[in-house]
Amino acid sequence: MRKSAFVIPAIVIVIIGVLSSMFVVDEREKALVLQFGQIKAIKENPGLAFKIPLIQEVVKYDDRILSLDTDVIEVTPSDDRRLVVDAFARYRIADVQKFREAVGVGGTRLAEDRLSSILNAQIREVLGADQVTSDRILSTDRGELMVRIRDQAREEALGLGIEVVDVRLKQTNLPSQNLEATFARMRAEREREAADEIARGNEAAQRVRALADRTVVETLSISEKESQITRGEADAERNAIFAEAFGADPEFFAFYRSLQAYENALKGSNSTMVMTPDSEFFTYLKSETAQ
């Protein structure tokens, strides 16, 4: 009985010691075995692992790609138009030993603070470089600028054991106090462009109208010329007919012309005429020849 009283506690202690010496590394994690703060083992493969109980401890870090939102900062491109920039980064712990040596017990929070400082510095450096204007930052060229930020931040982050996977600019806006002035300038530019287009349109319309007016004048001139020619030819033909008729019977021709004159003078409402008794207008109505 006395012997079993010592054996059972010993077995319990051994079991507890064995259990406390085992730990499991998940496939999404990396683990460090520390002894008095010093790294004794690195466990990067998932599975069961062991440590010395009470003497050694295990610190685990996430092995997945993590996200970091940077603080909103202001940058000044080469055209001196300030921009408010909001970015985020994707990163992962590439070298867990270097990561631990760089951040110590501060862990992921301290690492993200340092990485955020690195990103902000690179954003200011790249977006504030020569030949980088605000228009370029706001255009499709921003993709190239983000790659430059990522590459430069990646080099500095390697000292923390961190690999920067990607950097994206979420927002690149003008400060609120500059928005109204910018909008006013944009409106003025659009209005100037609209005025230029209207002026060009009016100029083109004037050219079309002038061409149309000239065409009308030329067409009328040609038509008038042709009508005058036709009228002259008709008059000539008429005069020829009259001359031929006059030559055939001058007395009848004179009589016929007098009848035409009577018809033209007395037609319509013009039925009253005042003339001297000896007027030659009604010669054929009173002469012996007419009788």
Q: Helix proportion of residues, in percent?
A: 55-70%
CATH architecture of the largest domain: 2-Layer Sandwich
CATH homologous group name of the largest domain? Band 7 domain
Kindly give the count of domains: 4
Number of helices, counting only DSSP H or I runs of 4 residues or more: 8
Strand content: 15-25%
Quickly list its features.
single chain; about 290 residues; alpha+beta; Tetrahydropterin Synthase, Chain A; 4 domains; four-stranded antiparallel sheet; three-stranded antiparallel sheet; 9 strands; rod-shaped
List the helices and strands and how they pair.
Blueprint: H1 2-21, E1 22-25, E2 29-35, E3 38-43, E4 47-50, E5 56-62, E6 66-69, E7 73-75, E8 83-93, H2 96-103, H3 107-127, H4 134-137, H5 142-157, E9 162-173, H6 176-248, H7 250-266, H8 283-286
Antiparallel strand pairs: 1-4, 2-3, 2-5, 6-8, 7-8, 8-9
Helix pairs in contact: 2-3, 3-5, 6-7
